[in-house]
Amino acid sequence: MTPTSPESPTSPESPTSAETPTSPASTTRTRSTRRLTTAQALIAFLARQYTERDGRRHRLISATWGIFGHGNVAGIGQALVEAGNGIGNGDANAYGNTNAPSNAHSHSDWNANAYGNSDGNGNGYGSRTPPRMPYLQGRNEQAMVHAAVGYARQSGRLSAHAVTTSIGPGATNLVTGAALATINHLPVLLLPGDIFATRPADPVLQQLEVPYAGDVSVNDCLRPVSRYFDRVTRPEALIPAALQAMRVLADPAETGAVTLALPQDVQAEAYDWPEEFFAERVWPVRRPAPDAAELEAAVRAVRSARRPLIVAGGGVRHSGAEETLAAFTAATRIPVASTQAGKGSLRHDHPADVGGIGHTGTATAGELARTADLVIGVGTRYTDFTTASGTLFENPAVRFLNLNITGFDAHKLAALPLVADACTGLEALTSALAGRSYRVDPAYETEYTGAKEAWEERVEASFATPDPTARPTQTQVLGLLDTLVTEEDILINAAGSLPGDLHKLWRARSRDQYHVEYGYSCMGYEIPAAIGVLLATEARTRPRPVWALVGDGTYLMNPTEIVTAVQENLPLKLVILQNHGYASIGGLSEAVGGERFGTAYRHRGPDGGFTGPPLPVDLAANAASLGLHVLRATTVDDLRKALAEARDAEGPTCVYVETETPDTVSGPPPAQAWWDVPVAETASRPAAVKAREEYDRQVAARRRHL
């Protein structure tokens, strides 16, 4: 990807540099330079980078998160002060780039998703005054990355945040967040401090000594979880490294975590930087079109299919292809099932939407998948949850057609590949089919719409609250939220049993309402990600309601960024569901012969195990101590009122509720497809022996699609 040259702007409003750079070939003029430290130069460079897609520009790096230590305080820290973050600078957090879509619509027809288009022109593009780099203060390095990822996802991958840390533990705390970003193809720029390049003392504080390699530091842990990694050991090396970093961040096929490791001495070293380095650059976000031969093969495959099924993945959302997908289904009547990342590609009430697919999916989607003769994957990676560990697509004649922007994913399951942007590819496929009179048999349409209606009855039963004085179940919590939210609300979750319940039951009303991170399924993602989402939507007159749904296990993993929400006065709506343990893994443990070992939060009992009374932990009091306004709910009726109050709150608010669990009352519909968690092949305990018998029965259905 080549950025737009500052001397050749792409539109009339694009600025030219205040000082026109001298041609590299010129020998009669002196090249203009600017003396800055490496850190100052990097921040000045980042503040002038933009993305552009479909004629709209966005600031690429709109803010920098940071926790400072000796490895970055005098480098990046000082550079951020230079960039306009001095004490008393009241507009330091003018994040920009986020006029979010209103998503105000209501429909249940074939013709559109009517989601609207997101808008945003970036932060100060074209301004003659130097753009500023807002600073955000975090409490945990991993959480800062999660917040940046939440921001990037909500911004359509067109804008991102940077994250700076010190060396040592601050840097290694980035690894989990980096893995999450890369797995989910979401851009984040990591700027960990590194050990001295000049090695004046060896070792320095927090240095890992590696006897066989003098150039290794703990930052090398970030290599396998980064889409691009470089260690900037000389000031001038920053120029190519920074340009490559921007290229990867803005590339829709390659994007993910990008790491520039910055030795602490190099950060503070001055250099005469060419003025051209600081010119505004626009990085086009490509929409590659499909190859003609691949498109023709795809058309033939669709036209020959009698029971086709679309599997919509996260690529639909990243491409902004929801409307195009709706148009394709309107023309063909092909049903659409969604992965966790793809849920919301169609509204829940769209006739073609059959809900989530796979282990956590609906019965409707599961049965369609088992009988499909053509599976059309759009922007999906086909994880084991989607394919039910290779057991879901049972039809002996099933074939796959994968529309994906990466060849790696397009070729999965021995598919016919259609390597293209999801929006561009769907437009091309719709156009190519238009003149060939393809539409699924009306009987097939009647079949799946009837099954969809039957599943909705099960959803209603799960959400029902016949006794307003009872302690609510987890699905009743979701049901009460369902009655309260509109297209404006955003729900964030990542781990525990909630993703399964949400995937099966939640009625997504807008393209971005359903924000479940299930690529890495990282406990502790929800609260910081909600902060990132709020930052991406705060340019609106009235902030959108953003809900972070967590269990007690997830809350205890990573509650620290509550303090950040309080500090920034962001209207976070946190819902804590207390069930005294790892309820999700407890259920899985029971199913695979683990007998719920080690999954309850209880005192030790007489038998030495964790079988005593529940621990006297008050998470509501803890949340209040961190600055949240806390609403406690003990009954269904209490919870209904608390959720309504939280939704209207203008500051950060928490709703705390203890829930009944499926082992005490009826729960949500069970899993509609299998998931492979290997069970002990030999064991003496009856629970494990029985679980292995069931495992052997299920695994026999696995197939490799060739």
CATH homologous superfamily of the largest domain, by name?
Answer: Thiamin diphosphate (ThDP)-binding fold, Pyr/PP domains
Mean pLDDT: 90
Task: List the total number of helices.
Answer: 24
CA-atom Rg in angstroms: 26 Å
If strands are numbered along the chain, what order do they take across the biggest sheet?
5-4-6-7-9-8
Domain Thiamine pyrophosphate enzyme central: 295-429
Domain Thiamine pyrophosphate enzyme TPP-binding: 495-656
InterPro entries: DHS-like_NAD/FAD-binding_dom, Myo_inos_IolD, THDP-binding, Thiamin_PyroP_enz_cen_dom, Thiamin_PyroP_enz_TPP-bd_dom, TPP_enz, TPP_enzyme_TPP-bd
Keywords: Hydrolase, Thiamine pyrophosphate
Features:
Rossmann fold; thiamine pyrophosphate; globular; 23 strands; 6-stranded parallel sheet; alpha/beta; 16% strand; hydrolase; magnesium ion binding; 706 residues; thiamine pyrophosphate binding
In brief, what are we looking at here?
This protein is an alpha/beta fold. 33% of the residues lie in helices and 16% in strands. It folds into three domains: 33-85 and 130-284, 3-Layer(aba) Sandwich (Rossmann fold); 292-452, 3-Layer(aba) Sandwich (Rossmann fold), CATH 3.40.50.1220; 464-580 and 615-658, Thiamin diphosphate (ThDP)-binding fold, Pyr/PP domains (Rossmann fold, 3-Layer(aba) Sandwich).
Describe this structure in words.
The chain is an alpha/beta fold and 706 residues long. The chain folds into three domains: 33-85 and 130-284, Thiamin diphosphate (ThDP)-binding fold, Pyr/PP domains (Rossmann fold); 292-452, TPP-binding domain (Rossmann fold); 464-580 and 615-658, Rossmann fold. Helices cover 33% and strands 16% of the residues. The protein contains 24 helices and 23 strands. The strands form five sheets. It has a six-stranded parallel sheet with strand order 5-4-6-7-9-8, sandwiched between helices. Strand 16, helix 13 (407-410) and strand 17 form a beta-alpha-beta unit. Helix 1 (38-46) crosses helix 2 (73-82) and helix 8 (292-304) crosses helix 14 (422-434). The longest helix is centred in the middle third of the chain and has 22 residues, at 442-463. It is globular. The protein starts with 32 loop residues before the first strand and ends in a 7-residue tail after the last helix.
